[in-house]
From TrEMBL:
Residue ranges constituting the Amino acid transporter transmembrane domain according to the UniProt record: 52-140, 169-383
Entry protein name: N amino acid transport system protein
Localization per record: Membrane
Record organism: Tolypocladium ophioglossoides (strain CBS 100239) (Snaketongue truffleclub)
Leader peptide range in chain numbering: none
Length: 408
């Protein structure tokens, strides 16, 4: 007999309860998402197809590690290495808490499949559509978007010495745009709802999350610090453009398979979100009907086309990354999770408020307010940066085929 997970089995303080390796976790309310499983149709809850905590950690890492990390060296150049590292670790801490709340909220509300379902619980139909737009706007934009003896743009007539800065002197718009870039790199949170929905044991989610966030933060720090240390102000964005012509081609060749995997994964997650939402509650969701496959192929093709259009219309790498981080990343990683904690804990806690409850209320409100500020200010900074890039001498333009792999 399969075990049924109760919301109370997942604590805010500790790891999930242990279960034997042969157990299959089954939740009756998953039927509210996928409907009745029919013979001959796709079985989304087949235990053999569900992922364990290591597989979940791998999927979460690929949802996080993408093109965003390639802009970190230029972020450090703008902010300075020390402020850059501090802000990176701060964003990592806040988003790790947010990611953790995803697992808690999912186990407390089993019918939630995507962040839009959480939005409907919090704010009704308006919240559902707002979070849906943010989710689709982000996995779409994400799909769209090495060091030698000296950087290729550095002067050749003098001895090369890196001019990296420990502290930068950015304008407000430059600083807030850089922070938005850091948020973009950690904003895979919206994809975590569907991932935890199909785990073999959702109670193992915190373990997968801890591994994911530890690995990606180390990777982000190493890439950002090492590349910026050796390239200084001549660092390119994407960072692979910091290598010479030959090494750059090799680097892109090595990176291409990983970028393709990230693109395919994010295209799949976003397409499946639209697919489930369109067919949820109908027989076509779990049947091999013409409608089932036509909808699935249409969703996949549509997401990729929209991503291509966005990438071509805003070919400024730093600009599109910071814009996505500010406009969509905050709305997926900050405000909703603060609201989720308040939704689940406000009524019960206010009757007998404890010190911990008051601190968590303050923290949740801080996450909501800071996320809103970063969304507004970051969007302003990103748009200003894109406009300046278009005006700059030799700057790129929309729908241009010009090489922008060495942009700074």
């Amino acid at each position: 007999m399969a075990k049924e997970i109760k919301p109370s089995s997942f604590s805010m303080h500790g790891d999930p309860e242990d279960i034997s390796a042969g157990d299959v976790v089954e939740d009756a309310q998953h039927d509210a998402v996928f409907g009745e499983i029919r013979q001959g149709g796709p079985n989304y809850r087949n235990a053999r197809l569900q992922v364990g905590w290591l597989g979940t950690a791998g999927l979460m890492m690929k949802a996080q590690i993408g093109l965003g990390v390639l802009s970190f060296p230029s972020v450090f150049d703008t902010l300075g290495m020390i402020p850059g590292v501090i802000l990176l670790c701060t964003i990592a801490g806040i988003t790790t808490w947010s990611d953790y709340i995803v697992g808690v909220f999912k186990l407390n509300h089993r019918h939630v499949y995507g962040i839009d379902d959480a939005g409907q619980l919090l704010f009704g139909r308006v919240g559902k559509e707002l979070f849906a737009v943010a989710f689709m706007g982000f996995l779409t934009v994400t799909i769209a978007v090495g060091v030698q003896d000296r950087p290729p743009t550095a002067p050749l007539d003098v001895a090369w010495k890196s001019d990296y800065k420990l502290f930068g002197n950015p304008t407000f718009a430059e600083a807030i745009s850089s922070v938005s870039t850091l948020i973009f790199a950690y904003a895979g949170t919206g994809a975590f709802f569907p991932i935890v929905s199909e785990m073999r044991d959702p109670r193992m989610y915190p373990r997968a999350l801890a591994l994911c966030q530890t690995v990606i933060t180390v990777v982000f720090l190493v890439v950002g610090i090492v590349v910026y240390y050796y390239c200084g102000s001549y660092v390119a964005s994407p960072a692979l453009g910091s290598a010479g012509t030959t090494i750059k081609k090799v680097s892109y060749g090595i990176a291409l398979p990983g970028l393709l995997v990230s693109g395919i994964l994010l295209a799949h997650v976003s397409s499946k979100y639209v697919f489930v939402r369109m067919l949820r509650g109908s027989d076509h969701l779990t049947s091999n009907s013409f409608t089932h496959w036509a909808t699935w192929l249409g969703c996949t093709f549509g997401v990729c086309i929209v991503a291509y259009m966005l990438a071509s219309s805003i070919p400024v790498f730093n600009g599109i990354v910071s814009l996505a981080g500010a406009l969509f990343g905050t709305l997926l990683s900050f405000q909703p999770m603060g609201c989720m904690w308040l939704y689940d804990n406000w009524s019960t806690g206010k009757e007998k408020p404890t010190k911990r409850w008051r601190l968590m209320v303050c923290w949740s409100i801080f996450v909501i307010v800071s996320g809103t500020f970063l969304m507004i200010a970051g969007t302003f900074g990103a748009i200003l940066g894109i406009v300046d890039s278009y005006k700059a001498d030799g700057g790129t333009s929309a729908w241009s085929c010009a090489d922008n792999s060495n942009s700074s």
